[in-house]
Every structure is written in C-alpha cells, then in structure tokens.
Amino acid sequence: MFWFAWTGQYDSIHWVVPTLAGVFLSTSILLIFVAYLNYLTDTYLMYAASALAANTVCRSACGAAAPLFTQYMFDALGVGGGGSLIGGVACLLAPIPFVFYKYGEPIRRRSKFAPTEDDGEREKESEQRRDEEEGGGVIEDVNIESSSESSTTLGVAEAERKNHKEGGEDSARERDGDEIIEKVLAKDAS
After folding, report:
1. Domain count of the chain?
2. What is the pLDDT along the chain (190 residues), one digit of tens a residue?
3. Could you tell me if residue 126 is inside a domain?
4. Using CA atoms, how far apart are residues 97 and 145, in angstroms rounded to an integer?
5. Are both 181 and 133 inside the same structural domain?
6. Number of C-beta neighbours around residue 83 at 10 A
7. Which long-range contacts does 79-82 make (Cβ < 8 Å, 24+ apart)?
8. How far apart are alpha carbons 110 and 106 in whole angstroms?
9. Helix or strand holding residue 141 (H, E)
10. Count of C-beta atoms within a 10 Å radius of residue 171
C-alpha cells in the first residue's frame, strides 16, 4: 500500500510503477480474502452461510461508509499520506491471522455455533444419558411363545429393522432391539 500511495502521488513517476504496486496489492487482498472466507466456512460448518452473510453485511457497511471520509482524508493528507494511513491500519491488522492460528481453538470452543471435536464426545455422552433415563440399557432375554401371530409380528419387525439399517448407523438402543429380535427369531426358528 505504501508503494502504491507514494508512487501515485507524483507525476514524475511513470504510471507503470503504481500499476505494478496495484498488482501486488490486489493479489495480497485477494489471497487474504479467500483465506478468510475459507476459515469462516471451515469454522462454522453448518452455519457457514450465515457467517458468510454476516461477513458480507459488515464488509458492505464498511465499503458504504468509506466514501463519507476518504475524500476529506486525501484532501488533508494527500495521496501519499492518506494511502500511508490505510497502509498503517493494514499493518496493525496484519497479526490477526497469526493470532487466530495460535488462539483460534480456544476461541472456537467458546462459540456455540462453531462445532469442535468435543461436540462429538458431548453428543455421545448425552445420547448415553438419554438411553439410561429412558431405560434403554441392556435388556435381558425375552420369552415369547411360538405362535403364528408372534411370527408375523416378528417378520414385520425384521423387515423394518433391515429398512432402517440401510438408512445409516444405529444407536445403542436400536442395536439392543436388533439383538432382541435376533434372539426371538432364533427361538422361533427352533
């Protein structure tokens, strides 16, 4: 930014010099922008659309406010001074990616919208507590007398179990239910 501002201020400097500075400036802005959007997407996963929308609103608000003061700034400080002020602010903000790299994990843990590795463990623990509260523990052998009615009911239950297994991973309670159905089918077959 400093290169762009100070070479753009003087007519004696060829126009290619600030243009080259603009190429480096725009490339660095683009790289930072893309990295920041990727960070937001990776951090907020299922809330990524909302995070990116909030980012867009804030960025647009800053862009809308900039014309209100930039004319006065460049009139008072000149092209070199105004550009240097913007470059100075950019230098002050430069450590932010490194701060996020070092302290990002504790910051994300405090957010209720950013899933962390602990969330999977917490979800498993809450599922186990729910199973225990609802009596979903290990179930003992079930005694069902063999009859045509119980065989029909078990056939329907077996079909439902197969359909459900195709849909994904079973919870602990469903696996216990599957074991019971298998035991009853084994007794029914003998």
Report:
1. 2
2. 888 889 988 888 999 999 999 999 999 889 988 988 998 898 888 899 999 999 999 999 999 999 999 999 999 999 999 999 999 999 999 898 889 889 888 888 888 888 876 655 656 666 776 767 766 544 444 455 544 544 555 555 555 555 555 555 555 556 666 777 777 777 766 6
3. yes
4. 68
5. yes
6. 25
7. 79/5, 79/8, 79/9, 80/5, 80/6, 80/8, 80/9, 81/5, 82/5
8. 7
9. none
10. 13
Tokens of 155: 């056939």
Could you tell me if 23 and 100 lie in one domain?
yes
How crowded is residue 94: how many other Cβ atoms within 10 Å of its Cβ? 10
Q: Which two tokens stand for residue 125?
A: 């623990």
Q: Which residue is listed with tokens 């909030």?
A: 54
- What pLDDT shows up at residue 92? 95
Q: Which two tokens stand for residue 27?
A: 């490339």
What Å distances lie between residue 64 and 34, 57, 68, 90, CA to CA?
21, 10, 8, 19
Question: What span, in angstroms and rounded, lies between the C-alpha atoms of 138 and 136?
Answer: 7
Residue type, 59: R
